[in-house]
Amino acid sequence: MKNHSIQFILASLFILTCSIKSYTQDYDEIGGPDYDTTSTAVIPFTKSMNFPFGKNYSTVSLKPIDIMEIDSLLMECAIIFIKSEKDKSSQLNPFKNEWKKQLVAATNLKGEIEVWVNCLCEEKKNWRTTILRIKNRKGEACYFSIMMNLTLKKYYDLKINSNGE
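-> structure tokens emitted (165 positions)
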């Protein structure tokens, strides 16, 4: 039995290593971004934006490994949220919806990378290039946003559409 556990762990590590290696290929090597552009849009932060970060934040580029970390933190947050809800059929369930994600990243004064993640359960016009702020629609939990600190691997400020956001 112990032998099977070790084999499983080694096989899992091998698969994970291969996945990360293929996911983090050099941008120029494959001629495009290393993330799913059908569901994720990276919108560059500029100092002229007054949302989601202040003027004392700096522009930063996300690497493929950063986007992988964002997806991991997002999944962790959603699972914790669902476990805390009485209604386990929550629309925030990451396994039920194919979310469209908008990512805006910046560096704070401490040099930490922060990311605002905006998730939409339905595709909207210009979602890949324009920050969308959705108003409450009959209490649907179909849109939510969350702030993340990638440097500290923490998330905070979860706002769900059904809360009137």
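The chain is about 30% helix and 20% strand.
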